[in-house]
Each structure stands twice: as C-alpha cells, then as structure tokens.
Amino acid sequence: MISDYRNKIGPEGIYYIYSGGFAFFFALMTTIFSIYHIDVVRLNPFQLVIIGTILESACFLFEIPTGVVADYYSRRRSIIIGLIIMGIGIFIEGSFPLFITVALAQVIWGFGATFLSGADIAWITDEVKGKNIDKILLKGTQIRQIFMLPGIFAGISLATFDISLPIKISGLLFILLGIFLFFFMPELNFQPVSKNKTGTGVKIKTRDQLFQTFTNGIKYIKGNKVLIFLFSAVILGGLYSEGFDRLWTFRFLKELSFPTFRHMNPLYWFAIIHSGGIIINLTFIEWIKRNMKDSASIGILWLLSAINTIMASGIFIFAFAGNFYLAAASYWLTYAMRYSHASLSDIIINKNISDSRIRATLFSMKAQLDQVGQIVGGPIIGLIANTWSVSIGLLSSGLIILPIVIIYVCLTKHRINQGGAF
Questions:
Q1: What would the pLDDT profile of 12-35 be if each residue is shown by its tens digit?
Q2: CA 84, 86, 90, 92: dihedral to nearest 10 degrees?
Q3: In three state form, how does the secondary structure of 36-78 look?
Q4: Where in the sequence is the domain holding 133, given as residue range(s)?
Q5: Total of domains in the chain
Q6: Smallest Cα–Cα separation from 369: which of 163, 231, 190?
C-alpha cells in the first residue's frame, strides 16, 4: 500500500513535500531563533556570531565525509539520517537555554545538516534523469518560500506562550519528516561509486574508495574553470553571510523602535519582516522562471552580478537606516536578492557537473567552502560589531559582497571569450 502511494506521488512530488516541509519546520524556529539567543540565553553580538561559527565549524568538519557517503552509499539514506540528527540537535537547543548546551546543540544539528547538503539536489537530479531539473529546482525554491510564510506566523504564535516552544516542536517535526521519507522516498536511479573494484580490477577498502571519491571531486573542480569561478564566489558569500545572519535581528531588537500598533506583540513585527522578504523573493523567482530560456546563458550571469550589487546596497542602507520602515525595506531587498542568488548559483553549478557519481560530493565541497568563509568572516565581523557598532559590522558584510560582483563579471567575459559556451 505504501508503495502505491510512493508511485502516485513520484520523486518530483516527494521533492516538493520535502522542500515544503523542511521550509515550514525551519521557519517555525528560525523566526525566533536569534530572539531566543538574545533574550533567553542572553548572548551579546560577539557571542551570537561565535554560536554561528560553532555551527559552521561542525558543518565544515563533517561536510565532505557525509557528502561522499551520499555518493557512495545512498542519497536517500543520507537525507533521512540528516533530518533525524538535525531534529535531535534543534530539540536540545530549545530545551536547555545555556551557552554550553546551545553550542553542543549547534554541533549536533550542524552534523545532521551536512548529510542533506548536496544529497537532495543529487537525488532529485538522478531520479528525474536530469529532465526539467532547472524548473524543478526553481519550483522547489518557490515552494520553500511559500511554506515559510505559515511557518513564520506559527512560530511567532507559539512563541507568545513560550519562546522555546517553536524550537522544540520544530526539532520533533524534522524527525517525523525523516521517518516519512523512510517510507515514501524512492531511489531507483542512484548509481553509487563501485564498492568492489578500482579501474584496475583490484579490490580496495571502503575508506580508500571514500578518499578516492573526494580526490576525484577536487580534480574535477581543478579541471573546470567555471566551477573555480563559482566556488570562489561561494567562499566570499560565506565571509559576509555569517555576520549579517547573526546581527540583523540584534539591530532591529536593540537599535530600532518597532511601530506601535494597537499594542501588538513585537514578535509579530519579526513575522512581518520575514514575510515581506519572502513575498518579494517569490515574485522575483517567478519572474526569473518565466524569463529564463537557458540557465547557462550570459544573461543569467549578468543577472547574478546585478543581484549581488543590489544585495550589497541593501545591506549598506540597512546598516545605517534611522527608522524601522527604511530598515525593513532594505532588509526585504537584501533577503530577496540573497535567496534568488542561492537558487541561480545552485542551478549553474549543477549544470556544470556532468559526472553524477560525484554530484553530492561536489555540492558538499561547495557547502564546505561556504562554511570556511563563515568560520573566518563571522568572528571578524562579530568583533567589529562588538568593538565599534553593529552598523559598522553590517557595513563590513556588505563590502565583502562587492568582489563577488567582479567574479561574475569575469565569468561572463570568460564565457563570451569561449564563444558563449561553458
């Protein structure tokens, strides 16, 4: 009976369920996550960034091994394990509001998240055999954004009773999503790296094969100039993002005054802030989807350059906005551009991976480079914010984005010189 439902839903339907469920559960907790850290755990700006750095450090340490496992054993298995471990870590974080337990929880759910990184894109790409994969990934992005909206308001509503409640419920729901996928997620087209022999026909140990998959990924990147450009942009993206992620809530909560509207709980203003960015992003993604003829086109690369320019401008305005409305508008702009960039970046990277056997490994490498940037950039921006001001810290984040624009311009020129082909 379960197999009948699995066949009816199909891999594309399961991918959309996974995308929507993940987004809802994640929004349930992340809407109040920083508020929980600031008001309950009592973290200062530097500690906020350090907590994020701990999470990214855990992801960095486990990213490649878990990515290789997805390519070597099973993308489906990797996703299910990741969701369950991630759920356990999130539940612990909401249950024990101490710096040490929060730090431990970050390590646990960061470890779980690395099982997901790249495995989901690799899984759906294989299951649909690459057919319409660009549109599927963009639709998945839209579904995630749509499901984040009810997740945001559900999280805020639960937080009015107990600010830790949405975090604990989110953790349990991630575990349930993993159990659901255990029964309903198919994996029919996965071709693992051979477990029995090398190219010479000699049997080798599993550890050696895992290492070989990793080194093959490095060689693949070195031989692909486009991936070198794109992965360079990923590192810079990590440098700016950790500081911004940890400081924007602090700026709203401690430096700006919320409008007074019929004694509305300030928590609901965060729901409005999140929702506005999502709605703008949804609109922009829909425009991209309708106008995108070729995801590897020069036009998309110019669009990525423009998106990063607008994103940097949004952060500059947000850093020094003197009132709530200007800060909210600039945050919405930054949010929409950031997540549109993430979707387009994944599509172009995915298009430039012709060897499906190492797809998850390469996406894990991409995530690891992002984490390197966050580990390095986060504490520096946090220290700047703690020493001078949150605004100066945010300004530093925005400045780091500008070289990303240059990278995309160089990549566009490279493609033009190559006659329009990657």
A1: 899 999 999 999 999 898 878 878
A2: 70
A3: HHHHHCCCCHHHHHHHHHHHHHHHHHHHHHHHHHHHHCCHHHH
A4: 2-185+206-417
A5: 1
A6: 231
